[in-house]
Amino acid sequence: MADDYPPVPFFPNSLAYQIGIVIFYPLLTGLGIWGFLRYRSGRYRYVPGALVGYSMLGFSSIGHFLGGVPDIPPFFMATISTDFAGGLGLIVFAALIANRHGLPIATERDAAAIG
Fold first, then answer.
1. Crossing angle for the helix pair 47-59 and 14-40, to the nearest 10 degrees
2. CA–CA gap between residue 101 and residue 50 (Å, rounded)
3. Which of 11, 55, 88, 93 is 20 to 30 Å from 32 at the Cα level?
4. d(Cα 86, Cα 5) in Å, to the nearest integer?
5. Contact 107, 81 (CB under 8 A)
């Protein structure tokens, strides 16, 4: 339903949305499942990073509004809002795990690679 949303000036092609969904939803969902299984087994290393990666599926839901407020049913608006809240909550949970177990969410090597 990407065509129902107002266009985003720097991301004009709805095909790009669809490609992003096809690639990132399975990839990040797998990362989230892997992080959850590590968490459940008590192996906390890499869990915060995996959960932050997975949380981007929900946290990035705010992107639905980059082109303006879409003309969508209230139910869709509610699901976008709860998706964002869930992603934000998962980021907070990952930070708490990292703090409790003295783990980095990213390593210094990751930071050097980014910038």
1. 150
2. 15
3. 11
4. 22
5. no
For position 86, what pLDDT does the model report?
94
pLDDT tens-place string over residues 24-56: 889 999 999 999 999 999 999 899 999 999 999
Domain range summary for the chain, segments of one domain joined by +: 25-106
DSSP the chain: -GGGSPPBTTB--HHHHHHHHHHHHHHHHHHHHHHHHHHHTT--TTHHHHHHHHHHHHHGGGGGGTTS-----HHHHHHHHHHHHHHHHHHHHHHHHHHHHT--SS-HHHHHHH-
Q: How far is CA 42 from CA 38, 45, 89, in A?
A: 6, 9, 21
11 forms beta bridges with 8
- Averaged over 70-98, what is the pLDDT? 91
Identify which has the larger pLDDT, 25 or 112: 25
